[in-house]
Design brief:
Layout lengths: L2 H15 L14 E7 L4 E7 L3 E6 L5 E8 L1 E7 L5 E7 L3 E4 L5 E5 L5 E8 L4 E8 L2 E9 L8
Antiparallel strand pairs: 1-2, 2-9, 3-8, 4-7, 4-9, 5-6, 5-8, 10-11
Protein backbone atom coordinates (compact mmCIF):
# COMPACT_ATOMS: atom_id res chain seq x y z
CA UNK A 1 0.00 0.00 0.00
CA UNK A 2 1.39 3.45 -0.81
CA UNK A 3 2.07 5.81 2.10
CA UNK A 4 -0.78 8.18 1.15
CA UNK A 5 -3.23 5.29 0.68
CA UNK A 6 -2.14 3.97 4.07
CA UNK A 7 -2.75 7.37 5.69
CA UNK A 8 -6.19 7.57 4.08
CA UNK A 9 -6.99 4.05 5.31
CA UNK A 10 -5.76 4.92 8.80
CA UNK A 11 -7.81 8.12 8.95
CA UNK A 12 -10.92 6.18 7.96
CA UNK A 13 -10.09 3.46 10.50
CA UNK A 14 -9.78 6.07 13.28
CA UNK A 15 -13.07 7.72 12.28
CA UNK A 16 -14.91 4.39 12.22
CA UNK A 17 -13.49 3.08 15.50
CA UNK A 18 -12.98 6.32 17.48
CA UNK A 19 -15.34 5.30 20.28
CA UNK A 20 -13.56 2.02 20.98
CA UNK A 21 -9.92 2.99 20.38
CA UNK A 22 -7.79 2.66 23.52
CA UNK A 23 -6.85 5.81 25.40
CA UNK A 24 -3.83 6.22 27.63
CA UNK A 25 -4.32 4.95 31.18
CA UNK A 26 -4.14 7.45 34.06
CA UNK A 27 -0.70 7.98 35.55
CA UNK A 28 1.17 6.46 32.64
CA UNK A 29 4.90 7.11 32.97
CA UNK A 30 6.35 4.82 30.29
CA UNK A 31 5.57 4.57 26.60
CA UNK A 32 3.09 1.75 26.00
CA UNK A 33 1.47 0.17 22.97
CA UNK A 34 -1.35 -2.14 21.94
CA UNK A 35 -1.62 -4.19 18.76
CA UNK A 36 -5.07 -3.48 17.30
CA UNK A 37 -4.95 -5.42 14.01
CA UNK A 38 -2.53 -7.74 12.24
CA UNK A 39 -2.94 -9.34 8.82
CA UNK A 40 -0.58 -10.43 6.05
CA UNK A 41 -0.77 -6.93 4.54
CA UNK A 42 -1.26 -4.53 7.44
CA UNK A 43 -0.71 -3.95 11.13
CA UNK A 44 -2.27 -1.23 13.29
CA UNK A 45 -1.04 -0.17 16.75
CA UNK A 46 -2.16 2.29 19.43
CA UNK A 47 0.83 3.94 21.11
CA UNK A 48 0.58 6.00 24.32
CA UNK A 49 3.25 8.64 24.96
CA UNK A 50 3.69 10.20 28.44
CA UNK A 51 5.40 13.58 28.67
CA UNK A 52 9.06 13.50 27.59
CA UNK A 53 8.78 9.93 26.36
CA UNK A 54 9.53 8.94 22.81
CA UNK A 55 11.24 6.52 20.51
CA UNK A 56 14.71 7.37 19.20
CA UNK A 57 15.61 7.60 15.50
CA UNK A 58 14.42 4.44 13.76
CA UNK A 59 13.25 3.02 10.47
CA UNK A 60 10.40 0.58 9.88
CA UNK A 61 12.24 -2.36 8.34
CA UNK A 62 11.19 -1.57 4.77
CA UNK A 63 7.49 -1.05 5.55
CA UNK A 64 5.51 2.04 4.57
CA UNK A 65 3.80 3.71 7.51
CA UNK A 66 1.29 6.25 8.69
CA UNK A 67 0.37 7.69 12.05
CA UNK A 68 -2.64 9.63 13.30
CA UNK A 69 -2.75 11.63 16.54
CA UNK A 70 -5.80 10.72 18.60
CA UNK A 71 -4.96 12.69 21.78
CA UNK A 72 -2.27 15.22 22.67
CA UNK A 73 0.58 16.40 20.48
CA UNK A 74 3.74 14.75 19.21
CA UNK A 75 6.98 16.17 17.87
CA UNK A 76 8.68 14.30 15.07
CA UNK A 77 12.29 14.68 13.93
CA UNK A 78 13.00 13.09 10.57
CA UNK A 79 16.02 12.59 8.38
CA UNK A 80 15.84 14.75 5.26
CA UNK A 81 17.26 13.71 1.87
CA UNK A 82 20.31 15.84 2.75
CA UNK A 83 20.78 13.77 5.95
CA UNK A 84 19.96 16.68 8.25
CA UNK A 85 17.10 16.59 10.76
CA UNK A 86 13.75 18.20 10.04
CA UNK A 87 11.08 18.81 12.67
CA UNK A 88 7.30 18.98 12.72
CA UNK A 89 4.51 18.93 15.26
CA UNK A 90 1.58 16.59 14.89
CA UNK A 91 -1.59 17.60 16.74
CA UNK A 92 -4.93 15.93 17.44
CA UNK A 93 -6.72 15.09 14.22
CA UNK A 94 -3.61 15.19 12.05
CA UNK A 95 -1.34 12.55 10.67
CA UNK A 96 1.67 11.79 8.55
CA UNK A 97 2.62 9.15 6.01
CA UNK A 98 6.06 7.88 5.09
CA UNK A 99 7.75 5.49 2.73
CA UNK A 100 9.77 2.36 3.43
CA UNK A 101 13.15 4.10 3.84
CA UNK A 102 11.92 6.84 6.23
CA UNK A 103 13.87 7.43 9.46
CA UNK A 104 12.41 9.47 12.34
CA UNK A 105 11.95 9.82 16.05
CA UNK A 106 8.78 10.73 17.89
CA UNK A 107 8.39 12.33 21.32
CA UNK A 108 5.64 13.85 23.45
CA UNK A 109 6.95 17.20 24.72
CA UNK A 110 3.60 18.26 26.23
CA UNK A 111 2.26 17.63 29.78
CA UNK A 112 -0.80 15.72 28.51
CA UNK A 113 -0.27 12.08 27.57
CA UNK A 114 -0.60 11.60 23.81
CA UNK A 115 -2.11 8.65 21.97
CA UNK A 116 -1.42 7.94 18.32
CA UNK A 117 -2.56 5.19 15.98
CA UNK A 118 0.06 3.72 13.62
CA UNK A 119 -0.31 1.54 10.53
CA UNK A 120 2.42 -0.31 8.67
CA UNK A 121 2.24 -2.15 5.36
CA UNK A 122 3.47 -4.76 5.06
CA UNK A 123 3.69 -5.53 8.79
CA UNK A 124 7.12 -4.68 10.15
CA UNK A 125 9.60 -7.52 10.49
CA UNK A 126 12.29 -5.31 12.03
CA UNK A 127 13.31 -1.83 13.12
CA UNK A 128 16.80 -0.36 12.98
CA UNK A 129 17.72 2.35 15.48
CA UNK A 130 20.20 5.13 14.70
CA UNK A 131 22.27 7.86 16.28
CA UNK A 132 22.68 11.18 14.49
CA UNK A 133 26.35 12.13 14.77
CA UNK A 134 28.35 14.93 13.12
CA UNK A 135 29.53 12.51 10.43
CA UNK A 136 25.94 11.34 9.75
CA UNK A 137 23.68 8.49 10.81
CA UNK A 138 25.19 5.57 12.66
CA UNK A 139 23.35 2.29 13.24
CA UNK A 140 22.90 1.69 16.96
CA UNK A 141 20.98 -1.61 16.96
CA UNK A 142 18.31 -3.63 15.18
CA UNK A 143 15.24 -5.31 16.69
CA UNK A 144 13.24 -8.06 15.04
CA UNK A 145 9.63 -9.16 15.41
CA UNK A 146 10.78 -12.41 17.04
CA UNK A 147 12.50 -10.49 19.87
CA UNK A 148 10.63 -10.83 23.19
CA UNK A 149 10.34 -7.05 23.70
CA UNK A 150 9.23 -6.27 20.12
CA UNK A 151 7.11 -3.14 19.73
CA UNK A 152 6.83 -0.33 17.20
Amino acid sequence: MSPLALLSHLQQYVEETAEILPRAPEGLDVRSYELLELSDDLEIWAIHWPQDRGLELHDHGGSAGALWVLEGELVEHYVTPESSLGRRSLVVGSGAAFGPSYIHDVVNAEPMTATSIHAYSPPMASMTFYRHEPAGLVVDRAEFRVDPDWAP
